[in-house]
Amino acid sequence: MSYVDEVLAQVAAKNAHEPEFIQAVTEVLESLRMVIEKNEDTYRRNALLERLTTPERCILFRVPWVDDKGQVQVNNGYRVQFNSAIGPYKGGLRLHPSVNLSVIKFLGFEQTFKNSLTGLPIGGGKGGSDFDPKGKSDREVMAFCQSFMTELYKYIGADTDVPAGDIGVGAREIGYLFGQYKRIRSVYEGVLTGKGLSYGGSLARTQATGYGLLYLTDELLRCNGRSLKGMTVAVSGAGNVATYAIEKAWQLGAKPVTCSDSSGWVYDPDGIDVATLIDVKQVRRARLTEYVSARPNAVYHQGKGVWSTKCDVALPCATQNELVLDDAEMLAANGCIAVVEGANMPTTLDATKFLQTHGVLFCPGKAANAGGVATSALEMSQNSQRLSWTFDEVDAKLKTIMVNIFHNLDDAAREYGMEGNYVAGANIAGFKKVADAMNAQGIV
Ligand code: NDP
Ligand code: 2IT
């Protein structure tokens, strides 16, 4: 049996109850076959793949907090410190009822490769809780965040592990988490990113994931003889990534026509209005039905269905496994030319394969959404320097990083005779730097 197959079988057996983690590992290891085969004996002897697929540390903890009725609630807290070969652990915190160890491990594993692709010195980590911020008062969210940090602070620090936002964690939650860390540790340091601008945040971090997604999409299309100008774009999600992807799509001459949340989706024939979307989702924290009330031509559909929209480019920006084989078939049949992932692992393995074999350009999230964490690393640099850069400076660095990421994937795929396979390109380019660093640091 090849070394890759041996490790895949081991990972599946050892993590049998963790489907998302097995899915992420399968995607990566399958596309590393050619790289591994070149050095199979050394890698096997050093158990490189076993080490790469086993988190350095998983921290699981109880998060008790008191709700507005005086009732004590208990949630599960997680921080998976996956790989610190190239820098301190770095990755977001997710607050969503679907969070479990499998989800956090898959995200931490992906983050390791993504962070490597940014070219910046950050290792991979992820955390979160099954706490649902929806429908909670500000006080309840604060109580949860303070309790979560009261345990988490023991394991993090500006040079150790630097969490940030993800689903359900935005400026409000980062503020409460930062306040509690500072209170307990009496240290004012860049221990979290995505901070508010008045206490060490970076300009353009809020926009970075969505903007970066579009910078990469623009370069991908340009290098394939196309352009975003005049294209119709279907976007899923209505949160941080989706909102600023929609904003940048407009700025680059495209027309974004959809967005979605966990209840339903919107088609706006005039294009999604960013100000209305921000008012509904960020200011009022309301459902997308409110968007349609403000935009008479827009149509609201209950449930799933965003990928049935005729579009040139599809940008899944909500959550994992939201674009399945049926969706891929519909997109291809409707003439979609590119699927670029804003979310982490939004496309299932069979849907990815279908798109790749039916002439649809496909770029995975670990490359396409890396602008968020890259800008987080820029926030860390600014905090260390005790300086802050202008919006345009950060945005220009972000754009350069995204264009470089695309060319790294493209070059890596070509080097191994898989031109246009950006999944393989991303995994190979991300893997090489981490593997080099792990080899250099001995058996740890
Ligand atoms: P937000 O919480 O801001 O928004 C998430 C959006 O996705 C919301 O519209 C939410 O709907 C929807 N959503 C979440 N879970 C589900 C679900 N299970 N089913 C259907 N819809 C769902 O999160 P972000 O925009 O920050 O994150 C979106 C994706 O991008 C995630 O995969 C995240 O890991 C990834 N990502 C985020 C980065 C960042 O910087 N924030 C960086 C890189 C990747 P509702 O409003 O109903 O909750
Ligand atoms: O998935 C991701 O890359 C993020 N949620 C952002 C992580 C970060 O540290 O900014």
Q: Concise description?
A:
The chain is about 50% helix and about 15% strand.
Structure, described:
The chain has helices spanning 3-14, 19-37, 40-45, 48-52, 101-117, 138-152, 171-185, 205-223, 240-251, 274-283, 289-294, 325-333, 349-357, 365-368, 370-385, 391-415, 422-440, and strands spanning 57-66, 72-83, 89-95, 123-129, 161-164, 232-235, 255-256, 258-260, 264-267, 299-302, 313-315, 338-340, 361-363. It is α/β, with parallel strands linked by helices and 444 residues long. Strands 1-2-4-3-5 form a 5-stranded mixed beta sheet. The protein has a 5-stranded parallel beta sheet with strand order 7-6-11-12-13, with helices on both faces. A hairpin with a 3-residue loop joins strand 8 (258-260) and strand 9. Helix 2 packs across helix 17 (422-440), helix 8 packs across helix 9 and helix 12 packs parallel to helix 13. The radius of gyration is 21 Å and the shape is globular. It starts with a helix and ends with a helix. NADPH dihydro-nicotinamide-adenine-dinucleotide phosphate binds at residues 96, 98, 165-168, 209, 237-242, 261-263, 317-319, 342-344, 369, 372.
| Average pLDDT | 98
Largest sheet: 5 strands, mixed
Number of strand segments: 13
Strand order of the largest sheet: 1-2-4-3-5
* Cα separation of the termini: 26 Å
The backbone outline, from C-alpha atoms, is globular
Q: What's the tally of helices?
A: 17
What is the H/E order? HHHHEEEHEHEHHEHEEEHHEEHEHEHHHH
Radius of gyration: 21 Å
Which percent band covers the strand fraction? 5-15%
Ligands bound here?
NADPH dihydro-nicotinamide-adenine-dinucleotide phosphate, (2Z)-2-iminopentanedioic acid
